[in-house]
Structure formats: C-alpha cells, structure tokens
Amino acid sequence: MSQGLSGLVPCLSLEDQIYQADSLVSLNSMASLPNTELFSLSSHSSTGGSCGTFSMEDGADEKGFMDVKVIPAAFQRSNSKQCYQIAAYDMCRRPRGLAIIIDIEVYENNVQERRFGSNVDVQNMKALLTGLEFDVLIEKNLHLSQFFEVITEFCSNKRHKEADMTVVVILSHGKDGVVYAADGQSINMEYIYEFFNNRNCPLLRGKPKFFIVQACRGDRPDQGVDSSGVFTETPSPLRIVSQSKRRRTETLDAIACSQDSSDVGKARPTWEDMIIAYSTIPGYASLRDHNKGTWFLQSLVEVFMTHAHDTELVDLLRMTSERLSQFTNEMGDKQTCNIEMRHLYKRIYFNPGLGLPVTKVARSQSMPPCYQGKVDQEFLNLPRKVKECFRQPPERKS
Asked: Using CA atoms, how far apart are residues 353 and 154, in angstroms rounded to an integer?
C-alpha cells in the first residue's frame, strides 16, 4: 500500500522511524482531560533547583530533578480554573470549512460483508455537519487508489485557506490501525492523518482538524460489567456460543484479526491541532444496527445537535461517551469510544448560527452565555430534530 503513496502528496515521507502500534494508543485518562499534555511535568524538567510555579507563557527549558511540591486545592472543584485561560480557535467564518464523509458500505466481490445501516449514519452526519456550518462532501465505496486520490484533493483544496476548521468522517470495516477500501485493501489510518499534518497541508496549519472514525479496531465484544462491581460467575460455554449468534439486524464493523506485523503506525512531531474520535477502543468491535445505524454516530449526533451551541468539543465528546455507555443489546454487549488529541492547544466551540457578519461572541468555558435583558424562551427550548437545532435565533430588539 505504501508504494507510490509518496507521490500523492508533495514531501510525504514514508521512510521515517517506524513505531509499534501499541505505543501510539492514547490513554483514556489523557483523552478525558483536555490539553493535559500542556501541563505535563515531564516537559518542564530542571537540573536541581526548585520547580515552583510556572506560566504557560514562560519558555520551556530542561530542569532535571525538581523540588516537586503539589499545590493543595482550596476547595472541591467541579470545573477547571485553566478553562478560563485557554484560548479558543477562531470559529466565525461561513462556512466554517470543508467536511468530507467517506462511506465504505459495499465491498467488491463481497470481500467484506455489506455495512447495512451505514446510509442512516451518512444522512445523520451530513445533516449535523451542515447545521454546524460546514460544506459537506460525500464519497462512497472508494477503491484504495480512489480513496487516496480523494484525500489528496481534499487536503490540497484551496478553500482551506479561508476556513476555520475541517472535519473528516470515515465509515468502514476495520481492525486496530487500519480501515478497508471497497476493493478489500487495507489503509493505515496514520497515512490518512499524515495528509493533514503541517508539512503536507500547510493551508490548515494552526486550524483544528477533527477526525471521526466509525470502524472496528478488533473483533472482541465488550460484554459489560455488573454495575455492583462484584464478580459473580465465570461465563458459561452456552453464553460464549450465544455471543456469536447475534440477531440478524445487528453486526460488527470488524473482520477477523490476523497477526500482521506490518500493520504499524507512524508518529510525526509536525502533527498539531488534531483530535480523533474513534467509535471503539483498540482490540474491540463497534456495533451497527442494520436499520438504525451505529451506536457511536447516533450518540454523537444526538449530543452535538443539542449541545454544540454552548459546549466545547472535548466536553461534547465526553457527553457522547456517556450517551454511548447507555446502549446495550439483547446479548448484553456494550461499547466504549476513544478520543485522541495531538497537540490540541485551544478549545473548540462550533458556534452554530453565529458568524460573519454577525458580531462574534468570545467563549471561554462550556456554559450558556449571559445575556443582558430578557431572552426569548423559544431560543432556549431544546430542539427535537437535527435540522431544528440550527435555526437562527429570533432577532432581539436593542
């Protein structure tokens, strides 16, 4: 797959050091704390001397051994003090930017099972991204060469220069680290991300790049845990057999995993402003209903359409995770999504319905803005449909 890939994008290097895929898996605990990497003590070392306090504006120098003294909390907190200090990416242009949905539903010669229900996800995501002020492009059932041609054209689109952000949504079969094109050939996800790094996509430098990946990352089912936390019994052979007899309207976005040592990832220090939402964690399957689509994308659309007007992106993904945890099937299966950030320095507010020439309202935390005067009650009512969420608020008399 890698042969000839360097010709698709100028300066695309595939000869750098290869890392094991396990080293690229982000910890859930890090994903649940936005911008934790900014405060990592390992990046602020000293050669003997007191560590003291530091400001994000201070230059970073190596310190070695530090006099580490944790400042005690003054009271129990429910939000972060830093959220008032972390800037937000600009998000005021109309459209906000370009979004692409790549849906691999049908596979050539049945090399993979058809992904029934994927059309539901595509339509829901298109409606959501349109409501969030993005111009949406949809590509379906691409072969490997077509896949990379589309990605190449998209990341080099001149319209990114006037954009605030971009969104890439991929729906396919997969296993950890790869997804599958319509001709059955595997695509390393790291190659896809590499198209959008600062070296290969300078038009998006300094702008957030949001990837949504709906695909299995293994074939293990998550059978859930008793909420009491007490282990009761060893799964019986009958239950193990029954796990493979799923109801006909529900399948996995997975294939049988083989031990392929060539499926490794690549890391780039030039990757910035990226956030990746995976439908499941490494090694596990992602569930999809034949008639209603996938659990993950339904959860994401429900949360974003209702809360994107006043909530930051990382918080939206936390809420999506909570919503996803409420899903289960008749076999008792559960699903856990996974969020990865690559030098995401600022907060992301979509600000749907707002934009030039409307006066931009700066936001610093995930809470509704305070208005002076009476607020129209209709504007505060939560919408029931995706498209209704993004209606323009009624004009207010000065």
From this structure: 25
User: Between vectors from CA 369 to CA 364 and to CA 373, what angle results, nearest 5°?
Assistant: 145
Q: What is the pLDDT of residues 176-205, one digit of tens each?
A: 789 999 999 999 999 999 999 999 999 999
| pLDDT per residue as tens digits for the range 271-312 | 799 999 998 888 788 888 898 899 899 999 999 999 999 999
- Report the C-alpha dihedral over residues 362, 197, 94, 34, rounded to 10 degrees: -30
Residue 354 in contact with residue 90, Cβ under 8 Å?
Answer: no
Q: Which of 40, 43, 35 is nearest to 82 (CA)?
A: 35
Q: Residue 389 CA to chain centroid, in angstroms?
A: 21
Please tell me which residue, 55 or 92, carries the higher pLDDT value.
Answer: 92
Alpha carbon distance 46, 37 (integer Å): 18
Residue 58 to residue 378: CA distance in whole angstroms: 46
Residues 165, 166, 169, CA angle at the centre, nearest 5°? 150
Distance, in Å, from the CA atom of 207 to the CA atom of 86, rounded to the nearest integer, reads: 15
Q: Could you give phi then psi for residue 147, rounded to 5 degrees?
A: -55, -50
User: d(Cα 41, Cα 129) in Å, to the nearest integer?
Assistant: 37
Q: What is the pTM of this model?
A: 0.67
